[in-house]
TrEMBL record:
One of its GO terms (biological process) is bioluminescence. This is Acyl-CoA reductase. The lineage of its organism: Bacteria, Pseudomonadati, Bacteroidota, Flavobacteriia, Flavobacteriales. Keywords: NADP. It holds the Pfam family LuxC. It comes from Gelidibacter maritimus.
Length: 352
């Protein structure tokens, strides 16, 4: 396969998953091989939710919608045009995936295959139904991918490079275990929002998407707010109110009740509205149903603090306070070129 064949195959995959981007799931018989794969993937989505209660049909559809848009031909070309794929010698690349949100490891999977390498995938047990089925579709529409994709639940076979994502503890294990291999090792990161008090109602409403989508389980979800000294949270609570039905999701409600009980027994001061708790805390990773917040006096000092802690931060949401700020409501809509941890995966894969 040449690069264009690989691009064309992923574009077809994007067209296929577009059928699953609304909760109704609508078959389009004009999509390649839909008659063979539509019902099967619909079943895999059902299995994914039954296996992992956080993977609701709505959140899976949201993730698929993002990928269907990213895999357009124009997006793929724009992403890849700056790289030189002419001298690729195919290698075996292992990917150890997280399982916190649906298809969280898909970008690594895409990057390895689009670069011309073979991939060994070790999935999280929390997210094991969707990607293998999409891989079968990919092999069907482009037979050149057959023999280049393998999934394993056992020890990884021999490989040349590895991309591994895990917790802070497992990342230290990965760094030791894979020290002889070319690698990208990712650990825990969280995202923050900087508020100035001048945000509009619409911006705060958009921020609620960054907080609650995927129940806050993604590294791009906002887990902490930086607010100016004396900030009043009334406008913030009004902005996020449309997400109040989230408390009817049992797993979320159980976390809310448990964390609230722990905080109250510890006599922490809390702000809460019945479905979200705010706790003043200097940490970045907040529990489910909780947002940490921290006051700041000086915006330049805050920028310096964020820069000093950039290894713990995935995204910064603000109204242009930092140079690389993400707009309100956009953390869960990354482009193909928005690399996790700002590490260029394609550049890495072209050098191994």
């Amino acid at each position: 396969m040449d690069l264009q064949q690989r691009i064309n195959a992923f574009v077809k995959l994007g067209e296929f998953i577009e059928q699953f981007t609304t909760e109704g799931f609508e078959l389009n018989e004009n999509i390649s091989a839909s008659d063979l794969f539509f019902d099967g993937f619909k079943h895999q989505i059902k299995l994914a939710h039954e296996h992992n209660g956080w993977f609701t049909k709505e959140n899976i559809a949201f993730a698929l919608n993002g990928w269907s848009k990213s895999l357009s031909h124009s997006n793929m070309v724009q992403w890849l045009e700056k790289y030189n794929f002419n001298n690729i010698s195919p290698k075996k690349v292992a990917i150890i995936m997280a399982g916190n949100i649906p298809l969280v490891g898909f970008h690594d999977f895409l990057s390895v295959l689009i670069s011309g390498h073979d991939v060994f995938v070790k999935q999280s047990s929390n997210d094991k139904h969707l990607l293998p089925y999409l891989a079968k579709y990919l092999e069907h529409v482009e037979p050149g991918f057959k023999g280049k994709i393998a999934f394993t639940e056992e020890k990884l076979p021999d490989f040349d490079a590895v991309i591994a994502t895990g917790s802070n503890n497992t990342s230290r294990y990965f760094e030791h275990y894979f020290k002889e291999k070319a690698s990208i090792i990712r650990n825990n990161r969280n995202s923050v929002a900087i508020l100035t008090g001048e945000e509009s109602d619409e911006e705060l409403k958009a921020l609620s998407e960054d907080i609650f989508r995927y129940y806050g389980l993604g590294c791009r979800n906002i887990s902490k707010l930086f607010v100016p000294k004396g900030y009043k949270f009334d406008a913030f609570f009004n902005g996020v109110y449309e997400w109040h039905p989230i408390i009817h999701q049992n797993k979320y409600a159980n976390n809310y009740d448990y964390n609230k009980a722990v905080y109250l027994m510890s006599k922490f001061n809390l702000l809460e509205n019945g479905f979200l708790m705010l706790k003043e805390d200097t940490s970045y990773g907040s529990p489910i149903a909780t947002l940490f917040y921290e006051y700041y006096n000086d915006i330049d000092a805050l920028k310096q603090l964020i820069n000093e802690n950039k290894s713990s931060i995935q995204c910064v949401v603000s109204k242009g306070v930092t140079e690389d700020s993400v707009a309100f409501g956009q953390t869960q809509h990354p482009q193909l070129w928005d690399y996790a941890d700002n590490v260029d995966t394609i550049a890495f894969l072209l050098k191994i």
